[in-house]
Amino acid sequence: MEKMPFSESLHATLPAMEYPAAHDTTSTDWRQQLPVLSSDAVTLRALRADDFISPPPSTADGFRRFIQWAAIEQAAGRYACFAVVPAGTDTAVGIFQVRQLDPSFDTAEWGFVMGSAYWGTGIFAQAAPMVVEFAIDWIGVRRLEA
Asked: 60 with 14: CB under 8 angstroms?
Protein backbone atom coordinates (compact mmCIF):
# COMPACT_ATOMS: atom_id res chain seq x y z
CA MET A 1 0.00 0.00 0.00
CA GLU A 2 2.99 2.29 0.42
CA LYS A 3 3.21 2.60 -3.34
CA MET A 4 -0.41 3.61 -3.89
CA PRO A 5 -0.46 6.96 -5.69
CA PHE A 6 -2.26 9.12 -3.09
CA SER A 7 -0.15 11.52 -1.05
CA GLU A 8 -1.63 13.96 1.46
CA SER A 9 0.99 16.60 0.65
CA LEU A 10 0.40 16.39 -3.11
CA HIS A 11 -3.36 16.67 -2.76
CA ALA A 12 -3.63 19.19 0.10
CA THR A 13 -5.12 21.86 -2.16
CA LEU A 14 -8.07 19.91 -3.55
CA PRO A 15 -11.30 21.95 -3.47
CA ALA A 16 -14.16 21.14 -1.11
CA MET A 17 -16.43 18.34 -2.31
CA GLU A 18 -19.79 16.85 -1.34
CA TYR A 19 -19.79 13.11 -0.67
CA PRO A 20 -22.85 11.15 -1.77
CA ALA A 21 -24.47 8.72 0.62
CA ALA A 22 -23.75 5.08 -0.14
CA HIS A 23 -26.54 3.36 -2.01
CA ASP A 24 -27.06 0.29 -4.11
CA THR A 25 -26.76 1.00 -7.81
CA THR A 26 -27.85 -0.66 -11.01
CA SER A 27 -25.38 1.36 -13.08
CA THR A 28 -22.84 -0.73 -14.95
CA ASP A 29 -20.32 2.12 -15.12
CA TRP A 30 -18.13 1.84 -12.03
CA ARG A 31 -16.55 5.20 -12.89
CA GLN A 32 -19.80 6.98 -12.00
CA GLN A 33 -20.74 4.92 -8.92
CA LEU A 34 -19.11 1.87 -7.41
CA PRO A 35 -21.43 -1.09 -7.04
CA VAL A 36 -22.29 -2.31 -3.55
CA LEU A 37 -20.82 -5.81 -3.20
CA SER A 38 -21.93 -8.04 -0.32
CA SER A 39 -21.72 -11.48 1.21
CA ASP A 40 -23.01 -12.92 4.46
CA ALA A 41 -20.08 -11.44 6.40
CA VAL A 42 -19.18 -8.15 4.70
CA THR A 43 -20.31 -5.32 2.44
CA LEU A 44 -18.00 -3.37 0.12
CA ARG A 45 -19.25 0.11 -0.75
CA ALA A 46 -18.00 3.55 -1.76
CA LEU A 47 -16.10 5.52 0.85
CA ARG A 48 -17.82 8.22 2.89
CA ALA A 49 -16.35 11.14 4.80
CA ASP A 50 -17.30 9.55 8.14
CA ASP A 51 -15.32 6.39 7.28
CA PHE A 52 -12.08 7.78 8.72
CA ILE A 53 -9.66 4.87 8.80
CA SER A 54 -6.17 4.97 10.22
CA PRO A 55 -3.27 4.46 9.32
CA PRO A 56 -2.70 7.15 6.72
CA PRO A 57 -4.08 9.57 6.03
CA SER A 58 -3.63 10.43 9.68
CA THR A 59 -6.32 13.09 10.08
CA ALA A 60 -10.02 13.31 9.27
CA ASP A 61 -9.27 16.19 6.87
CA GLY A 62 -6.56 14.14 5.20
CA PHE A 63 -9.02 11.26 4.80
CA ARG A 64 -11.58 13.62 3.22
CA ARG A 65 -8.91 14.70 0.71
CA PHE A 66 -8.13 11.02 0.07
CA ILE A 67 -11.82 10.33 -0.65
CA GLN A 68 -11.95 13.30 -3.00
CA TRP A 69 -8.78 12.19 -4.78
CA ALA A 70 -10.19 8.64 -5.04
CA ALA A 71 -13.42 9.99 -6.60
CA ILE A 72 -11.44 12.00 -9.17
CA GLU A 73 -9.28 8.98 -10.05
CA GLN A 74 -12.36 6.73 -10.21
CA ALA A 75 -14.17 9.15 -12.56
CA ALA A 76 -11.06 9.15 -14.77
CA GLY A 77 -11.15 5.32 -14.83
CA ARG A 78 -7.80 4.83 -13.09
CA TYR A 79 -8.71 3.73 -9.56
CA ALA A 80 -11.41 2.17 -7.39
CA CYS A 81 -11.58 2.06 -3.60
CA PHE A 82 -14.11 0.19 -1.47
CA ALA A 83 -14.87 0.60 2.21
CA VAL A 84 -14.98 -2.75 4.06
CA VAL A 85 -18.04 -2.91 6.33
CA PRO A 86 -18.74 -6.00 8.48
CA ALA A 87 -22.28 -7.38 8.27
CA GLY A 88 -24.67 -5.85 10.77
CA THR A 89 -22.74 -2.57 11.03
CA ASP A 90 -22.36 0.64 9.06
CA THR A 91 -18.79 1.30 10.19
CA ALA A 92 -15.91 0.79 7.78
CA VAL A 93 -13.04 -1.24 9.21
CA GLY A 94 -10.77 -1.18 6.18
CA ILE A 95 -10.43 -0.49 2.47
CA PHE A 96 -9.64 -2.37 -0.73
CA GLN A 97 -8.00 -0.47 -3.57
CA VAL A 98 -7.55 -1.33 -7.25
CA ARG A 99 -5.43 0.90 -9.48
CA GLN A 100 -4.37 0.71 -13.08
CA LEU A 101 -0.77 -0.11 -13.93
CA ASP A 102 -1.17 0.57 -17.64
CA PRO A 103 -3.41 2.99 -19.58
CA SER A 104 -5.78 0.22 -20.74
CA PHE A 105 -6.31 -1.08 -17.15
CA ASP A 106 -5.47 -4.58 -18.46
CA THR A 107 -2.96 -4.81 -15.62
CA ALA A 108 -3.86 -3.55 -12.16
CA GLU A 109 -2.56 -3.58 -8.61
CA TRP A 110 -4.73 -4.23 -5.60
CA GLY A 111 -4.15 -3.70 -1.93
CA PHE A 112 -6.02 -3.51 1.32
CA VAL A 113 -5.86 -2.13 4.83
CA MET A 114 -7.85 -3.75 7.63
CA GLY A 115 -8.20 -2.72 11.27
CA SER A 116 -6.19 -5.11 13.46
CA ALA A 117 -9.30 -6.01 15.48
CA TYR A 118 -10.64 -7.67 12.30
CA TRP A 119 -7.56 -9.71 11.41
CA GLY A 120 -8.35 -13.42 11.39
CA THR A 121 -12.13 -12.90 11.39
CA GLY A 122 -12.72 -14.12 7.84
CA ILE A 123 -13.72 -10.69 6.51
CA PHE A 124 -10.73 -10.58 4.17
CA ALA A 125 -11.53 -14.09 2.89
CA GLN A 126 -15.10 -12.97 2.12
CA ALA A 127 -14.17 -9.58 0.60
CA ALA A 128 -11.11 -10.44 -1.49
CA PRO A 129 -12.90 -12.63 -4.09
CA MET A 130 -15.53 -9.89 -4.56
CA VAL A 131 -12.78 -7.35 -5.29
CA VAL A 132 -11.08 -9.72 -7.74
CA GLU A 133 -14.40 -10.37 -9.48
CA PHE A 134 -15.10 -6.62 -9.65
CA ALA A 135 -11.66 -5.97 -11.17
CA ILE A 136 -12.12 -8.66 -13.83
CA ASP A 137 -15.83 -8.37 -14.62
CA TRP A 138 -16.48 -4.63 -14.17
CA ILE A 139 -13.16 -3.02 -15.06
CA GLY A 140 -11.82 -5.64 -17.49
CA VAL A 141 -8.54 -6.33 -15.71
CA ARG A 142 -6.66 -9.30 -17.19
CA ARG A 143 -3.73 -9.36 -14.72
CA LEU A 144 -4.05 -8.40 -11.05
CA GLU A 145 -0.89 -7.86 -9.00
CA ALA A 146 -0.53 -7.41 -5.25
From this structure: no
